[in-house]
Design a protein that fits this description.
This protein has 107 residues and is an alpha/beta fold. Helices cover 28% and strands 26% of the residues. Strands 1-2-3-4-5 form a 5-stranded mixed sheet. α1 links the parallel β3 and β4.
């Protein structure tokens, strides 16, 4: 547990994970648990809308309030459009975000 957040890896490397790789849970006694489902995608190709639909479909199953897709690539225009339909539930973090975050971390 770090900063009051419990991190749980779902599934194993290169195996089916049901659309979620990591569950992050912030314990909050007054409002219950706040759970975020993360889907990580390493690809040379742009990420397609199917990934957003899959994650959106498992948020309720996992009892997660928020979903995040993070990739070493970028998202297609259709993927960005798909996220607009679920803007309050799913965030997208692309290669630029990842590199900037790593650069700030290692300064």
């Amino acid at each position: 547990m770090s900063l009051g957040v419990e991190i749980n890896r779902v599934g194993r490397w290169n195996q089916a994970d049901g659309g979620v790789d990591i569950l992050a849970v912030k314990k909050c006694t007054s409002m219950g648990d706040f759970k975020i489902a993360l889907q990580c995608k390493h690809s040379k190709n742009k990420i397609q809308p199917r990934i957003i639909r899959e994650l959106n479909g498992v948020l309720d199953t996992q009892e997660a309030l928020k979903g995040i897709v993070i990739t070493s690539s970028y998202f297609t225009k259709n993927t960005l459009k798909e996220t607009q339909n679920n803007f309050y539930r799913i965030d997208l973090k692309d290669r630029d975000f990842l590199l900037k975050s790593l650069d700030e971390f290692f300064k």
